[in-house]
Write a structure and sequence with these properties.
The chain is of the alpha+beta class. It is built from 10 helices and 8 strands. It folds into 2 domains: about 5-135, Jelly Rolls (Sandwich); about 150-265, Arc Repressor Mutant, subunit A.
Length: about 270
């Protein structure tokens, strides 16, 4: 069974803001965020990208660790704001930078309706409505498309198995065997579909799982996390961890923020570790 697109909905806010300065300080977070305007208009500032002006039906997709703030609104506005983690196999399908998109009226109406639900139905409706909105940001032109490839189903099943057991000692041969291909053929197709080598995917998956454990289990020694991730020394673990996240294991533990894995290295043109 494949994981949902929105794997963990952290929060859903449906908030009205009066006219004038929003007085929200610039901040960043380790999860994805989707802000949809359902009434009025607002300007949102994103560090490094400037101002985004949003009106009803406009949505801003924010990947992790982009500093942003609500800037100002002339007449006030209402927004639906989703904070969530994407399902791991779908990371490559979505933009790595802030993206503004116009959503169809029927999706805006569905999200408005979800705000009126209460109790357990609210969670189901909000996840469903959020999934509809987030799915609009899948960008086949910017990222390799899993959906358009005939290997979609077997490949997603392989990614799910690896993500479910990130610390298992997977090899490229293991993945190729599950696909029914030889190593070279599998690697070629994997690279074409996902834009990274299988080995790179395995390393990133382990480091992502290690980052999660460091941030959420402060009593576990870094040496133990390093060993679980397959590294013989804390030094070698720290070197790869910092290369892929831009932070040290100790910094992640101190801040309890889960960094994005791989984006820093890919932007700088680095090679797979």
């Amino acid at each position: 069974m494949l994981p949902p697109l929105i794997e963990n909905l952290i929060a859903f806010d449906f908030t009205a803001f009066p006219a004038g300065p929003c007085r929200v300080r610039a901040h960043l977070h380790a999860f994805h965020q989707l802000d949809l305007i359902v009434e009025g208009a607002v300007t949102i500032f994103v560090e490094g990208r400037g101002d985004f002006h949003l009106e009803r039906g406009d949505a801003l997709f924010l990947p992790p660790l982009w500093k942003h703030c609500l800037s100002e609104t002339s007449h006030g506005f209402r927004q639906a704001s989703y904070k969530f983690y994407l399902g791991t196999p779908y990371f490559a399908c979505f933009p790595k930078e802030p993206r503004l998109l116009r959503l169809p009226e029927r999706i805006v109406t569905a999200i408005e309706a979800s705000s009126r639900a209460r109790g357990l139905p609210a969670v189901a409706e909000q996840v469903a409505a959020g999934t509809l909105a987030v799915a609009r940001f899948a960008n086949p032109e910017e990222s390799p498309s899993i959906a358009a490839d005939p290997l979609r189903q077997p490949l997603l099943e392989i990614l799910k198995r690896v993500s479910d057991q990130p610390f298992r000692k997977w090899s490229v041969s293991d993945l190729a065997r599950m696909s029914g291909m030889g190593n070279e053929t599998f690697t070629r197709h994997f690279l074409r579909v996902l834009g990274m080598t299988p080995r790179r995917f395995l390393v990133e998956t382990r480091i992502r799982a290690a980052a999660l454990r460091l941030a959420t289990e402060p009593a576990v020694p870094i040496k133990e996390v390093a060993a679980q991730a397959g590294y013989g020394t804390v030094h070698s673990f720290t070197r790869i961890f910092r290369k892929l996240t831009g932070a040290t294991p100790g910094e992640v533990r101190k801040t309890a923020k889960i960094p994005p894995v791989g984006d820093k290295d890919r932007r700088s043109g680095g090679v797979a570790p």
